[in-house]
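Quick check before the chapter quiz. The format below is the same one you will see on the exam, so make sure you can read both the input and the output lines.
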Amino acid sequence: MASPQENLADALEALKTLQDKGMVAIRSGDLARSHRERLTRSGFLKPVIKGWYIPSRPEETGADETTSWYASYWDFCASYLNHRFGEKWSLSPEQSVLFHARNRIVPKQLLIRSPKARNKITNLAHGSSILEIRAQIAEHEVLEEIDGLRAFKLPNALVVCGARFFHTYPVDARAALSEIRDASELLAILLEGGHSTIAGRLAGALRNIGRGKVADEIIKTMRTAGYNVNETDPFEDKFTISLPSRTRSAYVNRLYANWQSMRENVIQIFPKPPGIPSDVDKYLKDVDDIYVTDAYHSLSIEGYRVNEALIERVRAGSWNPDDNKEDREQCDAMAARGYWLAFNEVKKSVEKILNKHDAGEVTEEDHRDWHRALFSPSVDAGILNAGDLAGYRNGQVYISRSQYVPLNCDAVRDCMPEYFELLREETEPQVRVVLGHSIFVYIHPYMDGNGRMGRFLMNAMLASGGYPWTVIPVERRDNYMQALEEASVNGNIVPFTEFLAGLVSLAKT
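Here is the expected output.
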């Protein structure tokens, strides 16, 4: 008789076979009942709705652990909807625009259309749901498949979207509009449907992002065809963002629009910069003095079980992984040693900034050195391969208990140069502080260490304004993570700005 371990291994082999075929949504019939039950009990399979499962990890315990669900969400929806409706369904026009804007944030409710729909809500995991509306779907030529989901082509989706969409999703609407290169993409649809009001709205929206020539062409052509067109700007925020006209990915345009839309709130809320101090040596001594506190809190936020004694051993050089087996096997010690090495690299960068070097240029040149230092002890100990430190990540990452799914690795390579360009061009130090941190973790460029790197970047940018080195206390981890989540998911930078502003004010006293 097979042992329980052998039975579980057989079940895992069956699950691996399905995953090797690219299956993320697992139906009851895809696995033998005994395999399914063993995998569910062991935490390798998680039920979503009756008869449907997703792979998960045994270490994901607790009702609030959402990582496997948010990692699987879009693939699950694609499989489920294709199974239900075949090719007779589509995302809503609004969700289609979000997809074209590269917004992959999991919605609370996904609206889809299908002539086979039952006009009902299907509740999914963690408070999410699908609302299916019975409606004729668009003709085949105006739909396209994006990541397995059937979406409106961008020009058609923009024409169908109402004015409210531009109010609710101003960043995504601007990023999507930036994909329109010529008026002809919209004009054929506008003229065929006689959409004079929509033509005025889209012309105003395009002018808002600096596409005045495209807007003029829409207005002139519609009027020549006999339509009375009044241009209106549908963006409720009323400020304009001139997105660069050169061809760039929607990810980059979305990043740029986010920065521009958030910076005014930061300027209004964050304390004014005191200016770079004249006594650079004193500032750097203060940085040294805060190291133990900073290391304890920053590592504890990431879940490493460190204490001040370990940190002091690392700093004093008495941590010895070559001769001490416990040190060699202790990942927490690796993290502490790496933090000490990285902290010293960051301090070198801070010194350059205090000596009036451009903060954006310094961090662009030095940040990879910080990251290599952060993980070099793990490479030396054989825990990581040297190739793991070779630049930005080559795979997808997910954030535990977060609704936000970071950018794919190709988008990271598009966005990181733009990120540093924004840092270089930004004139207000407080904006570099807040957005430098929040947008770095929004991009999430590394497989690991993004939180620590984000806090290092924050402190480098604080130095550029003469603010003191500031520690984010582990006791306020939940507030910190919630504020970052609000910025990444809802584009609301106010809570994170207020959170950091309070800490900086305390650090000054």
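If your answer matched, good. The CA atoms of residues 49 and 101 lie 29 Å apart.
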